[in-house]
Structures
1.
Amino acid sequence: MPASTPSLLHRLLASPTLYHALRHGLLGGLPFKEWVTLYGLDDPNQRVADLGCGPADILRYVPTAHQPAAYLGIDFDVDYLARAEALATRLKLNATFVNIDLTKLSTDSATQQQLTGLLERERIDRVLLLGVIHHLDDASARSTLDLIFSVPSVKTVVTQDVAVVPGHGVNNFLAARDRGQFVRTELQYQELLASTRWPGRRVTWTRPGFRVAKYIHFTLTRDVL
Ligand SMILES: C[S@@+](CC[C@H](N)C(=O)[O-])C[C@H]1O[C@@H](n2cnc3c(N)ncnc32)[C@H](O)[C@@H]1O
């Protein structure tokens, strides 16, 4: 008998189809169009790496005429990667998908070289970490961000996470049931990101249609903002 049995909600969220439908339906629609612009996914000049891409649902909201020049999707879940790849093929996106476990980046030099090699080979300008940092402990998140910084072509990182927000009961109820084990407060995200090599940092908040939840985003840059 395992120490803790996954809840029904956690097991439902493990299905890519249900994950997308539940997130979108329960929250009254996620602000995908706003996110596409915030993440630079509608900029044909951008070569984008999406770390922890999952099934890459956001690609559905990228205008066909404004696709990024390249999209590199990385995840450690092969089912998600297969689904993301099928979607990218259907959308005729110039895309590559690779299986990497980001938690290995703090200790494993072969995985470090694999990630930096991919970012260099694909001449990536922008890295996205969408819904991912709250799945990573501080050491893994810091190693991932510092490795990305070591690749000169990458000018910008944009993140998205759920957060514990004082006084926002529904948001915090949902955050406590998130599959990520490292949901932080804004201050804790700020302190983590301040400990990385990225000097510039700007925070943005977005909300779904029902406005009961809040998403925190950081834009990290090589210049102080
Ligand atoms: C909340 S989902 C977000 C998926 C997608 N980025 C989105 O915004 O819809 C978190 C994603 O991070 C991936 N992930 C979590 N831990 C990871 C790790 N250690 N290495 C690689 N991917 C990871 C999960 O497989 C999942 O696809």
2.
Amino acid sequence: MLTKKPWRLGTRAKLLMRGLRYSCILPYASINGWLTVDEAIALFELANGLTGPKPHAVEIGSWQGKSTVCIARGLRAKNQAVLTCIDPFDASGDNESSDEYGDRATDLGGPLRRAFEENLAAADVRDLIDVRPGLSHEHAASIEESIDLLFLDGNHSYESVRRDFEDWSPKIRAGGFLAMHDVVHPVHAGPRRVVDELIVDNPDWINGHYVDSMFVTQRAST
Ligand SMILES: C[S@@+](CC[C@H](N)C(=O)[O-])C[C@H]1O[C@@H](n2cnc3c(N)ncnc32)[C@H](O)[C@@H]1O
């Protein structure tokens, strides 16, 4: 006997129901990854709302480019915008994630870096991206420019998220934004612990709020 599957709106339909302006991030829907529709829209809006010359966003943990495309599409029309993407592209990560990364990478049947490059090209954003292969802490010292938007989605262990926050958040300019993924998560406790210990009661960080599992906050003006 045939069982009926419950009817669900697809990601593309959900995106377009939020507004036709989000048609520009439609390519995100076909990229393997973990970002919800509302998280995708939030990243796009954060990048799109940046003002000032030469906006600079940094993404730690790019995988196959799902969040990359959302941020880059938000930066698309801006003058001399750059999105720096840091990822080892070897499917490595925290203990809770590495098996899933490995399985998904095997299913891909080719190098992660190639999938990332192809996804950026298909979304027409490759020209905005500065790719830095490797682990986040290996690049922290070499990136001296201030950051307008930092997206943390790399290693989710407490120690690594804390290190990323300590290495990278001081580079965020006053009024700039920090977004952290998987802060509300049944398995990953690290991002939430960092938010609770270092951000929530810290007057340097204001306007904290959640979009699904993502925590977004803004550096206070001095
Ligand atoms: C959850 S995935 C990122 C998902 C991506 N942001 C998206 O929207 O699809 C985490 C990625 O971070 C990478 N990674 C793990 N540890 C890292 C580190 N220390 N620095 C940078 N990237 C790391 C993993 O290999 C993986 O590609």
